[in-house]
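Throughout our pipeline, every protein is held as a single compact record rather than as scattered files. Nothing more is needed to write down the fold, since each code stands for a local backbone conformation. The record that follows is passed on verbatim for readers who wish to inspect the format.
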Amino acid sequence: MPVCHECGIKMAIHPDDPPWDIFGLPRLLIDEASVDRFLKMVDDPYNCLTLCSGSLGSSSENNVADIVRKHADRIAFAHIRNVKVYDNGDFSEVSHRDCDGDVGVLDIIKAYHDAGFDGYIRPDHGRHIWGEKCRPGYGLYDRALGIMYILGAWDTLDKLAKKG
């Protein structure tokens, strides 16, 4: 961490995606308890998270907005995406709209906003829409719609805060 301090660079780990064992290999960052443990291992403001709402949100055990509220000061990079979780545990990418998935995107955006988060935020992943041909999971059009959804929600929260 000394070099991070010297250079002003935050290290940010991404949670396991998906948050469950694969081929018998255990995953490390899958829930609030494992995030807590990781951040305490090296309790330093330069040891941070790339908090991915889709990775953590694909497990119904996780309330991503609560994790954001708890660790906003240790999140350097926010990946905001939405997933629909099925009864068998499978999940699929959906639009960023709150009503389309199970992650609670609006609550997550509000948690970042309320914390005064000033790190990087981007829509993570995207569906292929309008006949787009691109790298799987990274549809340009859907991610563009996602950032506008996120920014629209953020702008609304700014306006509501000014009225209060």
Q: What stands out?
A: The two ends are 41 Å apart (CA to CA). The chain has a mean pLDDT of 93. Strands lie at 11-13, 47-52, 75-80, 82-85, 91-94, 120-123. The first helix runs from residue 2 to 7.
